[in-house]
Design a protein that fits this description.
The protein is of the alpha+beta class and 126 residues long. The protein has 2 domains: 81 residues; 44 residues, no CATH class. It has 3 helices and 6 strands, in the order αββββββαα. The strands form 3 sheets. It has a two-stranded antiparallel ribbon with strand order 1-6. A two-stranded antiparallel sheet has the order 2-3. A hairpin with a 2-residue loop joins β4 and β5. The longest helix is centred in the C-terminal third of the chain and has 28 residues. The two termini are 37 Å apart. The mean pLDDT is 91.
């Protein structure tokens, strides 16, 4: 965690907490041909149907899907942000309590604790 706090501080950025990301249902595989992109399908069964007066056996096709990014991935990224925020507060408190910095003043300002909550509230209020 110390290395992550130091690297992010040098770069002047915060950890990626996946802002604005929502899980989407996407096909597991896509095939591309001259007509464009299509989701791959698998046979999940057969059915007998009457077409033009004749009984025929047809394949029942389905498209396997998944959720991307998965909800656990988003939760993990946000837990990582919260861990970073706690570590940053610990460093700030240690610098204030130690009084070792002579020429630098340590401010009490911190990034938002859970910035995704204010983003969700804005989206709901629209």
């Amino acid at each position: 965690m110390a290395i992550q706090v130091a690297e992010l501080a040098r770069a002047g950025i915060t950890p990626d907490w996946m802002p604005g990301v929502t899980p989407r249902c996407v096909p597991l595989e896509i095939k591309i041909n001259q007509h464009g992109e299509r989701a791959t399908t698998i046979v999940v069964g057969t059915e007998r149907v009457k077409t033009r007066g004749k009984w025929r056996t047809v394949e029942v096709l389905a498209c396997p899907v998944t959720w991307r990014p998965h909800q656990e991935q988003i939760a993990s990224a946000r837990r990582g942000y919260e861990d970073w925020w706690r570590a940053l507060g610990w460093v700030r408190d240690g610098l204030l309590a130690g009084g070792m910095l002579r020429e630098v003043e340590v401010d009490n300002a911190m990034p938002k604790v859970c910035p995704w909550l204010s983003t969700q509230l804005r989206a709901i209020s629209r």
